[in-house]
């Protein structure tokens, strides 16, 4: 049981570090109201998790990569906070674009990932 916690924790740490690195890089390159960093992270995370859960990886790899790494990499809470910030700024055009694109592209990416993992 202890090894499972270690697999998840180590994977989550690596995923969070990658998420942070991507976020810093994207925000330094594109100054815009649209939260491209979180959008990119969550859509690529949807694809990767879809691929992982449909692949033939063993349970240790599923814990490390699926629960740990992807749990640390993707960021549902940031997505929601950024959405609320756009609402508070009454930037409804960007808000609805962000919400719609994240859900549509996220679902499509997960579907493609699952199909590729089979």
From TrEMBL:
<dbReference type="GO" id="GO:0046872">
    <property type="term" value="F:metal ion binding"/>
</dbReference>
<feature type="binding site">
    <location>
        <position position="71"/>
    </location>
    <ligand>
        <name>Na(+)</name>
    </ligand>
</feature>
<protein>
    <recommendedName>
        <fullName>Fluoride-specific ion channel FluC</fullName>
    </recommendedName>
</protein>
<feature type="transmembrane region" description="Helical">
    <location>
        <begin position="6"/>
        <end position="22"/>
    </location>
</feature>
<keyword id="KW-0407">Ion channel</keyword>
<dbReference type="GO" id="GO:0005886">
    <property type="term" value="C:plasma membrane"/>
</dbReference>
<dbReference type="GO" id="GO:0062054">
    <property type="term" value="F:fluoride channel activity"/>
</dbReference>
<dbReference type="GO" id="GO:0140114">
    <property type="term" value="P:cellular detoxification of fluoride"/>
</dbReference>
<keyword id="KW-0479">Metal-binding</keyword>
<keyword id="KW-0915">Sodium</keyword>
<comment type="function">
    <text>Fluoride-specific ion channel. Important for reducing fluoride concentration in the cell, thus reducing its toxicity.</text>
</comment>
<keyword id="KW-0812">Transmembrane</keyword>
<keyword id="KW-1133">Transmembrane helix</keyword>
<feature type="transmembrane region" description="Helical">
    <location>
        <begin position="34"/>
        <end position="57"/>
    </location>
</feature>
<keyword id="KW-0406">Ion transport</keyword>
<dbReference type="Pfam" id="PF02537">
    <property type="entry name" value="CRCB"/>
</dbReference>
<dbReference type="InterPro" id="IPR003691">
    <property type="entry name" value="FluC"/>
</dbReference>
<feature type="binding site">
    <location>
        <position position="74"/>
    </location>
    <ligand>
        <name>Na(+)</name>
    </ligand>
</feature>
<keyword id="KW-0813">Transport</keyword>
<feature type="transmembrane region" description="Helical">
    <location>
        <begin position="94"/>
        <end position="116"/>
    </location>
</feature>
<feature type="transmembrane region" description="Helical">
    <location>
        <begin position="63"/>
        <end position="82"/>
    </location>
</feature>
<keyword id="KW-0472">Membrane</keyword>
<comment type="similarity">
    <text>Belongs to the fluoride channel Fluc/FEX (TC 1.A.43) family.</text>
</comment>
<keyword id="KW-1003">Cell membrane</keyword>
């Amino acid at each position: 049981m202890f090894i499972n916690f270690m697999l998840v924790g180590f994977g989550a740490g690596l995923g969070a570090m990658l998420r942070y690195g991507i976020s810093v890089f994207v925000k330094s390159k594109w100054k815009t109201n649209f939260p491209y960093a979180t959008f990119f992270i969550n859509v690529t995370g949807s694809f990767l998790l879809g691929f992982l859960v449909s692949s033939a990886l063993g349970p240790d790899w599923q814990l490390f990569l699926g629960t740990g790494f992807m749990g640390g990499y993707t960021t549902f809470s940031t997505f929601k906070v950024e959405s609320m910030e756009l609402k508070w700024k009454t930037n409804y055009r960007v808000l609805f674009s962000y919400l719609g694109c994240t859900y549509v592209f996220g679902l499509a990416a997960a579907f493609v990932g699952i199909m590729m993992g089979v």
